[in-house]
Amino acid sequence: MAAMEIGAHAMGLLAIHFEVSDIFAAVERILKSGAKVGRPKKQIELGFYECSFQDPDGNEFELIQPL
After folding, report:
1. Which is deepest, 7, 25, 26, 42, by most CB within 10 Å?
2. pLDDT tens-digit profile of 29-47?
3. Whole-structure pTM over 0.70, yes or no?
4. E strand or H helix at 65, and its extent?
5. Contact between 13 and 59 (Cβ < 8 Å)
6. Mean pLDDT (whole number) for 11-30
7. Contact (CB, 8 A) for 20 and 64
C-alpha cells in the first residue's frame, strides 16, 4: 500500500464478493445479462471456486463458491 500525505485525497480499492452455491449456474445467468465474466477458477489451497465479472459501468465484482 502506498504512503499518503496528510490532507491528500486518495481512492482506495473496494472488493465485493458474492458467495453462491452454484458458481457455474451463476456465471450462466450473468452472461445472459450481458456482463463480462471470467472463467471460474478452482482455488484448492484456499478451498473455493472464484470468478470475476464486470457490470455495464466497468465495476468489478467476484463470485465465490466454497468447495
Report:
1. 26
2. 988 888 888 778 888 888 8
3. no
4. strand 60-66
5. no
6. 86
7. yes
- Domain edges within the chain: 17-66
The residue type of 62 is E
Residue 49, number of CB atoms within 10 A of its CB: 20
Contacts 24+ apart (CB under 8 A), 36-45: 40/65, 42/67
User: How far is the C-alpha of 42 from the C-alpha of 57, rounded, in Å?
Assistant: 27
Q: How many CB atoms lie within 10 A of CB 67?
A: 9
CATH entry 3.10.180.10 includes domain 17-66: yes
